What does this fold into?
Amino acid sequence: QVQLVESGGGLVQAGESLRLSCAASGSIVSINSMAWYRQAPGKQRELVASITSATSTNYADSVKGRFTISRDNAKNTVYLQMNFLKPEDTAVYYCYCFARTSDLLLRPYWGQGTQVTVSS
It folds into this structure.
């Protein structure tokens, strides 16, 4: 009922930047929170950053000061600006949202993931 399409991943060198985008589409009535998670090989999926509909944000300690999450409610899109990337930021990044659809139910939705690789 809600599709999340991520873009912007790739291979960069340490210290460089990337910007991830995630557009939500489908029978959306409203989107509460949106977030980015990541999962590195052999590790559990972890929250990177989240943003509420009121644009209150939360960040993992490991990315504070380097990453910025934002959203465009008119486009149902969330962004993650990643600066000063480190090799330990290498992971598959997943977009997440908690949305109300036309059946008026709130559900979590996930994107398919986009690979971010940071070389040293």
